[in-house]
Automatic annotation (TrEMBL):
It comes from the Eukaryota. Residues 1-17 form the signal peptide. This is Amidase domain-containing protein. Gene3D superfamilies: Amidase signature (AS) domain.
Length: 574
């Protein structure tokens, strides 16, 4: 993506030029390869923006060290520095400086809307913005289409005073289109890459959202998850990722995949930053009837009140579904995560082993993430994919019906567009299409075959996947009559978030370490029951506080940019 923006002349430009200067070279030097120094982040005037928290940004703005405009401009500089390497931003908001100026003016007049006032953020390019940016899910098929309104979550962040910086790149159509593809690739955005290792799977489908936060190219970001698309990229970019209960955050105005599983989540470099974003976006929305389920199940005053410290871990009792997930972890990661678990126990927490997901042998694939595992076992009426295929056909038609300035109205139209533009959209399998979509658009074709009919197989699959996963998690959380604080799981094992996905249950992941051979991060996640976000905030913040106080590397560390000169497509699944 080319970062083209006409910057205003006069005081804004002069202030920016004086504050950040041009003395620091933005070129990565070969002698710094495989170190964080490869892409050093220049200071934002007199403020050290690298790894800065939202609270620290607010303090700098409040004491006059920084303005929201300068903050936006410094993130533009950082994006310019990293964009050609990680492609985390799909489109820059041409109005970003005007929005930031308005927030500065409000603050000067004595109005501060809240903790996100004047803070830049991005959203995944499947969230509608009623402005001068496109909303396309990374596809050329929707270029030029005009959305009827902001997505509800975008509108909520604007109301909170946050500054919309742009659209983050993603796996096209949030991974629905293909079953063998290059994670993080879209025709409009190119190949998004993790700053930790540019050659491997960056996690997806909210790839650019997580990569930008991990690379210090934005303060926070929003993503969406149907099955892993927040938790997976968060842990593979060493950031905090919150995937809320389905129904806690509205999906209105979000390009859909499955109404039963889609959830809008948040990314931050700290738990507090991710919770600030969560507090701003959750709530009931008449345009999404699933949000009605949160009535009387959410706290007055938001989730920030549940932030705690390491000393609170003495009151925690966690479950460890060892046979369900932990036996699948590689040896190096297991060693590091067990060290973290020992650290948590040393702070006073109790961890009970073998609190298994009920009937995990049936619902958890032993060979890796597989949302069609029911069909693999010979039972499509027990498959998550059976549900998603039908939901997508119907849900995308509903979304497209409200667009203007486009002829694309159905999945049939999208499929035909991809065939007609095979060289850019990869309608056909490789080698006829493009290498990023090795299997072409087989996911779309599988959905198309259903015609959206909710037949008996669909009904049985929906009932089985929801019941089995909910019972499985809830039983594990109620271990021998004792209510646990959460289930500690290794999110690098895709079957963890795949179990939470059909249940519609929430998860949070924390950075926990990196693999020595690839430099890729992995996390430690907590799984909870429906609307258990308060517990997730309580214990994630306590564990994070313990990590930061420990002084070791079992926490978020800066990216080392391995393979920064390589441009392989597809990326490696290691």
């Amino acid at each position: 993506m080319r970062l083209l923006l006409t910057l205003p002349l006069g005081s804004v430009w002069d202030t920016w030029a004086q504050s950040i200067g041009t003395t620091t070279s933005l070129f990565p030097l070969q002698e710094n390869a495989d170190t964080p120094a490869l892409f050093p982040m220049p200071p934002c005037g007199h403020f050290n923006l690298e790894e800065a928290t939202i609270d620290q940004m607010q303090q700098a703005i409040s004491n006059g060290t920084l303005t929201s405009q300068q903050l936006a401009l410094c993130y533009m500089q950082r994006t310019y520095q990293t964009q050609e390497y990680i492609s985390s931003l799909l489109q820059l908001n041409p109005d970003v400086l005007s929005i930031a100026a308005n927030m500065d003016a409000e603050r000067k007049s004595g109005i501060t809307r809240g903790p996100l006032h004047g803070i830049p953020f991005t959203v995944k390019d499947n969230m509608a913005t009623k402005d001068n940016m496109e909303t396309t899910a990374g596809s050329w098929a929707l270029i030029g289409s005009i959305v009827p309104r902001d997505a509800h979550v975008v509108a909520r962040l604007r109301e909170a005073g946050a500054v919309l910086f742009g659209k983050a790149s993603l796996s096209e159509w949030a991974d629905m289109r293909s079953n063998n593809y290059s994670e993080g690739y879209s025709p409009r955005g190119g190949q998004a890459r993790s700053p930790y290792n540019l050659t491997v799977n960056p996690g997806g489908s909210s790839s650019g959202s997580a990569a930008a936060v991990g690379a210090n190219a934005i303060a926070f970001s929003l993503g969406t998850e149907t099955d892993g698309s927040v938790i997976n990229p968060a842990e593979r970019n060493a950031v905090v990722g919150f995937k809320p209960t389905v129904g806690l955050t509205s999906r209105a105005g979000v390009i859909p995949e499955s109404e039963h599983q889609d959830s809008v989540g948040t990314f931050g470099r700290t738990v507090r930053d991710a919770v600030y974003a969560l507090d701003a976006i959750y709530g009931i929305d008449p345009r999404d009837n699933y949000t009605l389920a949160q009535e009387s199940k959410t706290p007055n005053g938001g989730y920030m009140q549940y932030m705690t410290g390491k000393e609170d871990l003495k009151d925690a009792t966690f479950g460890l579904p060892w046979n369900s997930f932990w036996t699948l972890v590689d040896d190096e990661q297991k060693t590091i995560l067990l060290d973290l678990l020992a650290l948590i126990e040393s702070a006073g927490a109790t961890i009970i082993n073998e609190t298994e997901i009920t009937n995990y042998e049936t619902i958890v694939s032993p060979t890796g993430w597989n949302w069609d595992y029911g069909t693999t076992r010979g039972y499509p009426n027990e498959s998550e994919y059976t549900v998603v295929k039908v939901d997508f056909y119907n849900n995308i038609k509903t979304y497209l019906s409200e667009l203007k300035n486009t002829d694309v109205r159905s999945l049939e139209d999208i499929v035909q567009y991809n065939y007609d533009n095979d060289g850019s959209e990869g309608g056909n399998p490789w080698p006829l299409g493009i290498p990023a979509f090795y299997s072409g658009q087989d996911g779309f074709l599988a959905s198309l075959e259903t015609k959206g009919v909710k037949n008996e197989t669909y009904v049985q699959a929906l009932e089985f996947t929801q019941r089995s996963t909910r019972e499985g998690i809830d039983t594990a959380l109620n271990y021998k009559g004792q209510r646990l604080s959460g289930l500690l799981v290794p999110p690098d094992i895709g079957q963890t978030y795949q179990t939470a996905a059909p249940a519609g249950y929430p998860m949070v992941t924390l950075p926990a370490g990196v693999h020595s051979n690839t430099g890729m991060p992995f996390g430690l996640a907590i799984m909870q029951t429906a609307f258990g976000e308060a517990e997730l905030v309580r214990w994630a913040s306590a564990i994070e506080d313990l990590q930061l106080a420990s002084g070791n590397t079992i926490r978020r560390t800066l990216p080392r940019w391995h393979g920064y000169l390589e441009r392989n497509i597809p990326v490696l699944n290691v």
